[in-house]
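# nightly structure sweep
# worker-07 picked up a monomer target from the shared queue
# config: single-sequence mode, recycle default, output format = structure tokens
# input follows
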Amino acid sequence: MRRYGKGIGAKLTPDEAEEIAAGLSEEELERGRLETVCVRWAADEARTLSEASGMLRELAAWLADLEAEGWQLVEPIDGGHGHLVNRDPRMRIEEERGRYLWARRGSNTGPQRCQRCALTS
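# output follows
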């Protein structure tokens, strides 16, 4: 994650995240203030249960890191997709950490689905 200041310890509650998201302007949405993650395929292509459990642990650690750095879900995950916001408007999820990240900045202006999910729906 790109860190501007410490960011750690500034956990948001779901209610606070929802309130921040509700107040975002079109410009903020276009700049990527709202991040979208897809966790639907978290263990896709695992060939063993051990491999699948490792992939799920990796995802769990990543989500815990996001929350520790001030990210929170705006609403419950639906269909494997979650919208996240950070109290710090400068924070973004770095793409190299974003195996589950999609809908890059400028495309988070409404309900969307990742390309992989769109292909299977």
